[in-house]
From TrEMBL:
HAMAP family per UniProt: RNase_III
Binding site for Mg(2+): S116, E119
Annotated protein name in UniProt: Ribonuclease 3
RNase III domain sequence ranges: 1-130
Xref: Gene3D superfamilies: 3.30.160.20, Ribonuclease III domain
Subcellular location: Cytoplasm
Amino acid sequence: MRRLADLLDRLPDDLARQVFTHSSWTDRRADSYERLAFLGDSVLGLAVTTHLYPRLEADRYGAGRLTKIRAQAVSGRSCMEVAERLGVPERLRAAAPQGVGQNADALVRTERVLASVIEAVIGAVYLDNGYETTAEAVVEAFEPEIETALEHPVDFKSALQERLARRGDVVAYSVASEEGPPHDRVFEVVAEVAGNQVGSGRGRSKKDAEQEAARTALEAMGA
């Protein structure tokens, strides 16, 4: 985390200010962290993919398995954990304009916001330092999440499907709602069995939301 923290502290004032500006705190949406998060999301994905690729044997890790490991390593939950270790909630709260204290307190507890801000940090660091320096800092910051994804890959959808198959049931997923602009969309998905809702989840992609819905379904089943 040291490298990313140092690079964040050395950002020019205009970039640092944008990283910690929520869209509801400015009259110009372009002054918020959303564009930087869009950029940082791509840099994060490339950095983790480039790090994982040579570590995983081609005969054991096909594209599908690589995709699942990477998705777990850079998921919204993983980004939130990195953001908390980096002190993003405190930095975001400190950057809030006067009069929005309650709003700021709610935002710093939201996975979507913290994940977007850590992506904005990565985007800003990339603009200021280029790819190589940023990628090294990103891999260091996400190392615990990367190792967890490698050692304990999670596929809640497969686990739920296998559990239901034992009793002859099938799960179906449907999108209940979509929020946010196209580049920062959050999906809510429900999991249903025989027309009855058994779980629900939110995520920054439909696949992430489906995994979360499957996880809550398994929890409800005591698995």
